[in-house]
Amino acid sequence: MNGLRRICSALLALALLAGCGGKQEISELAIVTGVGLDLSDDGEGVRVTAQIVRAADARGQTGAPAGGTGEPIYSVSAEGETIFEAIRNLARVSSRRVYWAHNFVIAMSEEYAREGISDMVDFFTRNHELRMETKVVVTPDRAEELVSTRTGIEILPGESIEKLFWYSDIVGEAPQTNMMHIEEMLLSKTTHPMIARAKLRKAGISNKKPEKGASVNQVELAGAAVFKLDRMVGWLTPDQTKAAVFFIQKVESLTIPLACPKEEKRKATAELQGHRFHATPSLKDGEISFRVTMDVAADLVEYGCNEPLESALPDLEKLLEEDLRGGIESMLEVAQNDYQVDFLKLGDRVRNEYPVYWHRVERRWDGIFPGVEIEVDVHAEITSPVLKVRGGRK
Amino acid sequence: MTQQDELLKSAYSESLDDNVEKLDALLGKSIDLIIRPFVLHKGKDLRARCYFTDGLTKAAEIDTLLTGLMAFTEDVFGDREELTGKELTERLLLNFSVRMTHEIGEGITAVLSGDTLLLVEGVGAGLIVGSRGWDMRSVAEPATETVVRGPRDGFTENIRTNTAIMRRRIRDPNLRIEGMQIGTRSKTDVNIAYIKDVAKEGLVEEVKLRLSRIRIDAVLESGYIEELIEDAPRSIFVTIQSTERPDKVAAAILEGRVAVFVDNTPFVLVMPTFFWEYVQAADDYYSRYWVGSFFRQIRYICFILSLTLSPIYVMLVSFHHEMIPTELALTIASGRAVVPFPVLLEALLMEIAFELMREAGLRMPKPIGQAVSIVGSLIIGQAAVQAGLVSPFMVIVVAVTGIASFAIPNYPASFSIRLVRFPLIVAAGFFGLLGFAVFLFAFMIHALSLRSFGEPYLAPAAPFRPQDQKDLLARMPWWSYEKRPSIAKDRRRQPSGTKPRPPRPS
Question: Which residue in the set B324, B331, B430 is minimally distant from A59, CB to CB?
Fold first, then answer.
């Protein structure tokens, strides 16, 4: 009995003395769903823009009386010398505690990225509230604007940018980049980061003024920014990114428009179905070289040529091979000559295959990479001409 | 020893007047006590008296008694001097149940139980003639544990009817029903039923020992007995099962358990009891085993939900927002945008409102009870949310918790789960995951430490008993139950290979 009383009073004291330490009601938080990082106007510090959800309006009628403007988000920005200071300064304008755990996306402007992203990676990985699967993009526009732009379908702009990544597998024009990938690439001794590019483009058609055509800003995810260490050095075009993605990620699908073998103006389209991609290093006489092989199985999904399919098929396959090889080679050209940066994880492959050699060249890899000979070999096969027509308009 | 106790212990004398004096002193004058003096041998003027209680007796039995004695005594005995109780029983009393007693107190208890006490001049003993019979509720469907498929009879308030229902189910000579009386004033009949060669040795003795230690003045319901013999008197968990269903008791007895019947209540106690039995319904064993297993799983889920759902909600919303999926977090946040209370208070308010409705619905007369629930659900479900007092999510959480707790077949067990939930909610609201986990584990460890008549309370899950698993999570088909649970002494239930199959074509 005495023991029971003692335990009870201990529990009671614990509850009363500790109070509700650390308690924070969910409705008292400013839940951030997107962050934009720009250089501040004087160029010295950083401007952080937070896209904060106004939950009551983001969810509409839930039985509770809704109050407010009807805007699902509320965007505020604050400046500071460092990211942390800028975020602290957000409290000057935000009536609620800024809460980061549900952040979808971190957008950086090109100027910011060119100054170096290691601060950003450091801050966003140290903070315990932030998640490693937050997506990261670089934009040629102002990040502030990108983060605050409402897109058409999703209620929350941050969410819509994140969801672009889900379906970027289909176009294959942007790498999947979240904090985890970026940290991994940044810490790696062999690889330099490559981050997806998001851009505002007038792609949305206003329903009220359809005659104006595409006039509403939407976020487009295509291309990538290439980094040397933590500083951005340049862009990859969507086509170059398509080829680069093969090296670092699994590609689900890809559409490749082809010109008809005998008529330049007519087109056919192949859809990449399955492929095997290998980039194999080989060491000969102390010189490293790569052989990239790609076995592709594609479907023909559009066929506008006049020539019967049977006779055109071998030519189409050859065209497909050339197209893919051309894409990879031009991308390698850019990587090796223009940027001279290995963002393709080729160094990793060397290290895995030839650890002893790698140990010797590790420090000099950035110098060696531009001169490495890379042979590209593509074998394509159109396995399923899905079309019903036997080809030809006549 | 008081004078009354002395009188109760004293023996009957040969003189009728002496005996009458003692009985008058003890019984006094009650309006329902009927004393019927008569003469059974006119020649010898042999006087006699019957004592019985009006309302507890069958008039026909007393008629028979009087007829036998008054009409035939002279014919049978003639002029013989001696007239012993044994001879009276053997030659004159036509009633089916007669026994002799030498102690005054025993006769009095018999009279108050509905039997008739016969005293005859010159016989130094009392004769107790069975004449019990009174109005009672007939056998009806149990109100608390209903089944879709299964017998519809339930126990009644009459202990004899109840043991008869048992006998109708198990016609085994080894089914023993032993009687005793508990309660110094109420003298309530308590019967202990078990199958002699199935119940483990020592179990029946232990039950009897614990029952014999009860010194209470009255036993009005089996709940008294339960609290006076259980292993963990301070625990919130119920370590003795009580049920209104005869089939449940029969199944328990067949598994080697002991049932305790108490007079004047339809609730029979079954011991030892395992925690998991509260999640098992009688239906499980009567419907197809696929269905039975499925619904049993549902009940396990219900058990977990009713225990943890609202504490987890409180914990997530007030501390661990990062653990909620983003979309859901926004929905919750939007629902809570206008709620003025912290979520802990909101949860306690709603839980108490729910308990209020349940209790009010139970206490009100049945026709009004419906009105209570309609008004209650309107206020709680609709108005409270629209007024911005509680969030719609909280209503859903509490409603699901409540419904889940109703799905637990055993009423006392579902109560104890509901009670445990309140400290869990408070702990989760004060300390978040830490408090929730500490409390939940404290309860689990406590449950682990319990025993019910020597059996670990959480068996066969912990300690893990591989041979008993067939009836824990799933209900296996009957032909696969070759053995009884390990609490039984005689383990073999049926020979192996009883799985039915069509005859093979020859």
Answer: B331
- Asked whether the beta carbons of residue B333 and residue A55 sit closer than 8 angstroms, the reply is yes
Chain B residues whose beta carbon lies within 8 Å of the beta carbon of residue A33? 326
DSSP symbol at B380: I
Q: What confidence score (pLDDT) does residue A249 get?
A: 84
Q: What is the pLDDT of residues A190-203, one digit of tens each?
A: 889 999 999 998 88
For residue B1, what pLDDT band results from cuts at 50, 70 and 90?
Answer: low
Is residue A343 within 8 Å of residue A280, measured between CB atoms? no
Judging contacts by C-beta atoms under 8 Å, the chain A residues touching residue B426 are 15
Cα separations in angstroms, A372 against A12, A331, B8, B499: 71, 14, 115, 73
The first and second tokens of residue A312, run together, are 């055109």
End-to-end CA distance of chain B: 83
**pLDDT value of residue B365:** 82
Q: Which residues of B touch A60 (CB under 8 A)?
A: 334
Condensed to tens digits (0 to 9), the pLDDT of residues B334-348 reads 888 888 888 999 999
**How much is the average pLDDT of B422-444?**
91
DSSP characters over B311-326: HHHHHHHHT-GGGS-H
- C-alpha angle A73-A75-A78 in degrees, rounded to nearest 5: 160
Can you list the residues of chain A whose pLDDT is less than 70?
Answer: 1, 15, 18-22, 60-69, 152, 385-394
Q: Are A105 and A134 in contact (CB under 8 A)?
A: yes
Residues 6+ apart with CB under 8 A from B449: none
Query: Which amino acid belongs to residue B488?
Result: A
Chain B environment of A58 (Cβ under 8 Å): 330, 334
Whole-number Å distance between alpha carbons of A194 and A245:
10
Q: Do A25 and B342 touch (CB under 8 A)?
A: yes
Please give the average per-residue pLDDT across B209-215, as a whole number: 94
H-run or E-run covering B456: strand B455-456
Instruction: Return the residue in B326, B385, B438 with the most chain A beta carbons within 10 A, the one to mutate for interface testing.
Output: B326
**Neighbour count for residue B467 (Cβ, 10 Å):** 11
Average model confidence (pLDDT) for chain B? 89
- Judged by a CB distance cut-off of 8 A, whether residue A33 touches chain B is yes
Under the banding of pLDDT at 50, 70 and 90, the label for residue B297 is very high
pLDDT above 90 coverage of chain B, percent: 44
Query: Distance between alpha carbon B430 and the CA centroid of its chain, in Å?
Result: 39
Tell me, what's the pLDDT at A63? 43
Q: What is residue A370's DSSP assignment?
A: G
Please report which residue ranges of A156-197 form alpha helices under DSSP H: 157-171, 179-187
Inter-chain contacts counted by CB atoms under 8 A, chains A and B: 105
Query: Which ranges in B31-113 belong to alpha helices (H)?
Result: 59-77, 85-87, 104-113
Between CA A196 and CA A370 the distance in angstroms is 23
Q: A213 CB near a chain B CB, below 8 Å?
A: no
Residues A152, A103: Cα–Cα separation, whole Å: 20
Question: Can you tell me whether residue B275 is helix, strand or coil?
Answer: helix
Q: What is the pLDDT of residue B377?
A: 78
Single-letter amino acid, residue B409 = P
Distance from CA of A352 to the nearest CA of B (A): 38
So what's the pLDDT on residue A62?
Answer: 46
Residue B491 tokens read as 């383990």
Per the confidence metrics, is the pTM higher than 0.90? no
Give the one of A63, A102, A156 whose C-beta lies nearest to B392's C-beta. Answer: A63
* Section B211-225 average pLDDT: 94
B→A contacts (Cβ < 8 Å), by residue, are 234, 317-319, 321-322, 324, 326, 329-339, 342-344, 385-386, 388, 391-392, 426, 429-432
Q: Which residues, at least 6 apart from B186, have a Cβ–Cβ distance to it below 8 Å?
A: B217, B218, B219, B220
* B502 cis-preceded (ω within 30 degrees of 0): no
